[in-house]
Amino acid sequence: MTESPHPPISKAVIPAAGLGTRFLPATKATPKEMLPVVDKPAIQYVVEEAVSAGLHDVLMVTGRNKRPLEDHFDRNYELEEALSKKGDSARLARVQESSDLATMHYVRQGDPRGLGHAVLCAAPHVGREPFAVLLGDDLIDPRDPLLARMVEVQKQQGGSVVALMEVDPAQIHLYGCAAVEPTTDGDVVKVTGLVEKPDTADAPSNFAIIGRYVLDPGVFDILRQTEPGRGGEIQLTDALQQLAVDEKAGGPVHGVVFKGRRYDTGDRGDYLRAIVRLACEREDLGPDFRTWLRRYVTEEM
Ligand code: G1P
């Protein structure tokens, strides 16, 4: 049997070993990924996003104190039985939703040596297929699908694909930054170089990597050789820079330019904005909440 040049993508990797120090003390004993966005933990939105792009095999790269993540995506028989006895089928369905979503796998990162190292921990599970990486701090509005488009571009172009968003140049030092060239597809650019969190003056563009990647498995070979970079950590961006300049290693690298709604739930202000926005738009909570919010803004602010 001849191998298809671009095998279908079925695996998603979600690094979730971070300490969540920006949310202390809430994250002292609770993983930051479990903080609720309205009434669902942030991480569930991310897993749902992977699943809606057709990726049903999800590997979470976790660390110490992350057991609640495993419990959340597992069955909770006691709770299910209690709800079912009460005849509360709506809540029962909400409880079962997360355990029925995807086939979940977990691996521990051990030493927190950076995002590149976290991705490398996924190598034995992923094998030699292209795969997606979704960062838990970036929440992409489900109405603005991004990952599915990235998977499509990877199928057409091969190599690796990153998600890019134009940001205020003053903010580029918070992101991986891409030097890009246009392609014939309006929302797709060719990435010619990447640098992790550059100073504004040194940034090659204002195209920031937002936390979605579709990667050629060649990235693992590069990550094994990647020296610690910015912040003394093994940076995924540094490995991608290698892919961008070496097609044989797992390039080329393309970028899908995202213009939709993205929330950075790792930032307290943006986290609050995400909750307000998503709550306003919910059919069940939205009407009352919007009325209250309007009154609050006009009368009390
Ligand atoms: C990571 C990546 C960075 C990327 C960002 C997106 O940084 O290293 O390249 O732009 O995620 O959210 P972090 O925010 O984890 O420091």
TrEMBL record:
Which GO terms fall under molecular function for this chain's record?
UTP:glucose-1-phosphate uridylyltransferase activity
What is this organism's lineage?
Answer: Bacteria, Bacillati, Actinomycetota, Actinomycetes, Kitasatosporales
In its UniProt entry, what is this protein called? UTP--glucose-1-phosphate uridylyltransferase
Q: Which domain of life is it from?
A: Bacteria
One of the protein's GO biological processes:
UDP-alpha-D-glucose metabolic process
EC no.? 2.7.7.9
Substrates-to-products reaction catalysed: alpha-D-glucose 1-phosphate + UTP + H(+) = UDP-alpha-D-glucose + diphosphate
Q: Which residues form the signal peptide?
A: none
List keywords of the entry alphabetically. Answer: Nucleotidyltransferase, Transferase
The source organism is: Streptomyces sulfonofaciens
Q: Name one Pfam family in it.
A: NTP_transferase
Database matches in CDD domains: UGPase_prokaryotic (cd02541)
